[in-house]
Amino acid sequence: MDFLLKPYSSKVFFEKVGIKPEVFRVGEFKSAVEPFILDKMSDENRFQTQFFLDDINNLAVAEIAKSRGIALDSLKRTNNEMLVRKPEDAVTYKLATALAYEDEVQAKLREKLGLGEDDDIPTINATDLGSVVKSTNITSKKQNCGNHCRRSDRGRKCRWGDKF
């Protein structure tokens, strides 16, 4: 069953169980169904995927260069030539300020937060994040009124019957 773990393996699976998907596509850039009908990524999908990954990379490199005070051309070279291969390289290329062990980082956090040596550092995990951060997702019925309704609606019931 290792074919299920590989990208573009749905076609192989369907062939093994005797299913032939019927797909209707119009246009070149319709990649959602490719795993069902192709063994590998189409040239069109490869092109569009490479385009948006390059765009994300260029944005990230530009923001990192700005925030770290690194010349953009220099950071592009570091990125393109994959010059950061070990932690010390990140400091050399100014992508990290220093290297530290976990206990050193925790001690620094305690110092910055004004905590004692044995005090716990307050944290939140990703699972709990949804209960702390107000969502702007207006389609979720699980959110309370402060999240899914407009501010001008305050004082009334929202469309799901919640009170503000």
Features:
single chain; 164 residues; mainly alpha; extended
Please specify the SSE layout and strand pairing.
Elements: H1 10-17, H2 34-37, H3 43-68, H4 72-80, H5 87-92, H6 102-113, H7 126-132, H8 145-148
Helix pairs in contact: 3-4
How would you sum up this structure, described in words?
- With 164 residues, this protein is mainly α.
- Helices cover 46% and strands 0% of the residues.
- It has helices at residues 10-17, 34-37, 43-68, 72-80, 87-92, 102-113, 126-132, 145-148.
- The longest helix is centred in the middle third of the chain and has 26 residues, at 43-68.
- It is extended and about 65 Å long.
Quick recap of the structure?
By secondary structure, the protein is mainly α.
Unreliable segments of 5+ consecutive residues = 140-145
Task: Write the H/E string, N to C.
Answer: HHHHHHHH
Output mean pLDDT. Answer: 79
**Helix/strand/pairing class, anyone?**
mainly alpha
Report the strand count. 0
Main sheet summary: none
Tell me the fraction of residues in β-strands, as a range. under 5%
Query: Level of helix content?
Result: 40-55%
Q: What count of helical segments does DSSP give? A: 8
